[in-house]
Specification:
This protein is mainly alpha-helical. Helices cover about 60% and strands about 5% of the residues. The protein has 2 domains: about 5-175, no CATH class; about 180-280, no CATH class. It is elongated, with a radius of gyration of 28 Å.
């Protein structure tokens, strides 16, 4: 059923109740059933929505792994390392698809029930015999609005879940490869992006990953930004597009995050590297 067909059912229901009023429970129940059926037909089957979701998430996954986008978030990590993690990353994709499908189903049920609740409340307020004081146009617009907005909301869910998938996959790789810190990359410069002001303020800040090997060895300490787990994670908040660039080496940290022991270890590593290069010649 098309949007036009749904509109016609809603219009018929409003006109009938305005003309006859709440003269029986059966009249209201009849139109509720008609509106529900028309709404479900207009939205299409849940299976169709889930297939669209699956394709969209698979495209995000392919862009991250097959096109190598996720490696850009992990400087120094080789592609073959990411390939080794594919089973674990694929499991995360499947988990995200299941969660997203459940969210879409829930949103659909809520939108339809909200519409029916609105209709029921309005229709039972009309006195038997009908009323000339009913604003039919306003009521029709109200009943049509929530469901017409739903396809847009579902697209927003797909986009948001894609960002969450990206963040989850990046985190899995970071844990496996023993990252020690992460740099926050905000997308506040992106045209049209409704960014959060506090996320913009995090742009470029480097957060220590609590419990990492370098911290446990006393080589590094939190900088001015503190620990990553003290702020909301990438894509944790709805429609957040922020991402991280993960750091694995002491040399890539700002000086303020190195302890004396860390600076000594880094100096020693550099001396050994210079010696090795000299020996090669």
């Amino acid at each position: 059923m098309t949007t036009r067909a749904y509109d016609e059912v809603v219009s018929a229901a409003i006109n009938d109740l305005a003309a006859n009023g709440f003269d029986s429970v059966e009249r209201v129940a009849y139109w509720e059933a008609q509106i529900r059926a028309a709404a479900e037909a207009m939205l299409g089957s849940a299976a169709q929505a889930e297939e669209t979701l699956r394709r969209a998430m698979a495209q995000v996954y392919a862009r991250l792994l097959d096109q190598g986008k996720v490696v850009q978030m992990h400087p120094g990590v080789e592609r073959f390392t990411v390939e080794r993690l594919r089973p674990q990353l694929r499991a995360e994709l499947d988990r995200r698809i299941m969660a997203s499908a459940q969210l879409i189903r829930l949103n659909r049920r809520q939108a339809i029930e909200k519409t029916l609740q609105r209709f029921s409340g309005w229709s039972t307020s009309i006195p038997a015999g009908g009323s000339d004081n009913v604003d039919r146009r306003e009521e029709k617009a109200t009943l049509k609005k929530a469901l017409k907005q739903l396809p847009f909301e579902e697209r927003r869910v797909l986009i948001d879940q894609g960002h969450k998938l990206t963040a989850s996959i990046a985190d899995i790789i970071a844990v496996d490869q023993r990252a020690i810190a992460v740099k926050w990359n905000s997308r506040w410069r992106q045209p049209g992006y409704n960014y959060r002001e506090d996320h913009k303020e995090r742009d470029g800040l480097i957060y220590l990953l609590r419990g990492c090997w370098a911290a446990e060895q006393g080589l590094i300490k939190p900088g001015g930004a503190g620990y990553y787990d003290q702020v909301t994670a990438f894509a944790e908040e709805p429609f957040c597009r922020c991402q991280g660039t993960y750091i694995y080496n002491l040399r890539d940290l700002p000086a303020e995050m190195l302890t004396n022991k860390g600076r000594e270890a880094l100096d020693e590593a550099r001396r050994k590297a210079r010696a090795a290069m000299a020996g090669a010649y």
